[in-house]
Amino acid sequence: MCGLCGILGGGGHWTDGVGTGQAAAVPWLRRQARRERVALGNAVLHPIGLTLSDWQGSEFLLRARTGATTMVGTLTDLWPKAERLSGRIIDPLDPDFLDTLDAAGR
Amino acid sequence: MPPGGDARIPVIVLTGFLGSGKTTILRHVLRHPAFSDAAVLINEFGEVGLDHVLVGALDREPVLLASGCICCTIRGDLSRAVRDLHDRRQRGEIPRFRRLIIETTGLADPAPILSTIAADPVIRHHFVVGVIVATVDAVHAEAGFKRYPQMLRQVAAADRLIVTKSDLALEGTTPRLLRRLSALNPQADIAQASHGAIDPALLQPDDTTTPRRWIAQSAEDDPSASHGAIRSFCLSSADPVPWSAFGLWFSLLVHRHGGRLLRVKGLLDVAGSTSPVAIHAVQHVIHPPEHLPDWPSDDRQSRIVFIVEDLDPDLVRRSFTSFMRLSTPASQVQATGAF
């Protein structure tokens, strides 16, 4: 547990540990990887009014336009919290949602 | 499924509908010396006991069968039973079993059992899902599939299918069933039992050579086979898969549609990784991906085989493509730990 914020250590996530390994050991590569994840997350979350940011290199902050904020540990936490905060269902098979993503990816 | 060198105890989940011969098969397998280090948790008692003499004694306490196996029934929830068994093993009250077989109730969807093993912080530290085996009764399967959707879920979730009672089935029934099972779950090994006798290896956990076989099967099979609302299809990608984007996409797909993803199994060419990565999920349960030592062939296309219920394959493919496009090559870095 972090002595300052009282956050319990994560129990591991299925996305952990895949890749060629250097990034986990090299701090700047790890930061770069987290930045990429934040950017990808925001491409999905911005259209529903949410913003994701890195917090202390250990957690993520999810913020709504209203200012409501919640901490996110893993991707498993992200989606239910994003739906709660936005009041919307995020469906990766919704054609309209995919149109929005395609526009963001161009 | 358990990666090489994994010290955790493999869990063999034996599922199958009521009366499909699970206990008969278990009885046969437990006589084999290879299973003398097994512990067995039984979720129900049917008409066939593992050992008629011991049925009465199996009420609460784990007992030692003549074969050396430990056996007990699940009285409370599964996680309590598994923890209790492990505690007794650690205290030396029961032999140090090296595999755990869970025989499910015939009405069970196996996904919650997998979820218990994968999600319980204590259990997942000591145990790992090894293999899911489902028995299918050749006499009653056709009618059962229509009436009991959980039978299809059991078949879809299985790594191995054992067809029982073929000797009692009408002529032509078993070949028809075998074709149906093969189309429904193209990646599963299918075997036939004769009065409960099977090759005990069918209840041994997978090894890392298995993806060679099931990827080869997925490449050969009809890419889209339909069984009412349940269908299987293969999603292929010639481009390396950006792991961050994949994690985002797949976690969202499982979050929103996990109940309809009866089984997902694939081999990915992950961007930045020299070795292929095997993924495996049953409904809401995603197993830790494994790096495999090498590719099954020169073909390095990523392939994911889905068995889904009420999901449109074209939409799944489109969704995958849309998410992967979010990750531009310039932004990709080697995958790492958290998130």
UniProtKB/TrEMBL annotation, chain A:
- List the source organism: Lichenicoccus roseus
Q: What protein does this entry describe?
A: Uncharacterized protein
Where does the source fall among the domains of life? Bacteria
Automatic annotation (TrEMBL), chain B:
Xref: InterPro entries = CobW-likC_sf, CobW-like_C, CobW/HypB/UreG_nucleotide-bd, P-loop_NTPase, Zinc-reg_GTPase_activator
One GO cellular component term, please give it. Answer: cytoplasm
Which SMART domains does this one have? CobW_C (SM00833)
State its role: Zinc chaperone that directly transfers zinc cofactor to target proteins, thereby activating them. Zinc is transferred from the CXCC motif in the GTPase domain to the zinc binding site in target proteins in a process requiring GTP hydrolysis.
Ranges where the CobW C-terminal domain occurs: 230-324
Keywords assigned by UniProt?
A: Chaperone, Hydrolase, Nucleotide-binding
What this protein catalyses is:
GTP + H2O = GDP + phosphate + H(+)
Instruction: Give the family per the record.
Output: Belongs to the SIMIBI class G3E GTPase family. ZNG1 subfamily.
Question: Which species is listed as the source?
Answer: Lichenicoccus roseus
Q: What is this protein called?
A: GTP-binding protein
Tell me, what is one Gene Ontology molecular-function annotation carried by this entry? nucleotide binding
Any one Pfam family match given in the protein's UniProt record, by short name: cobW
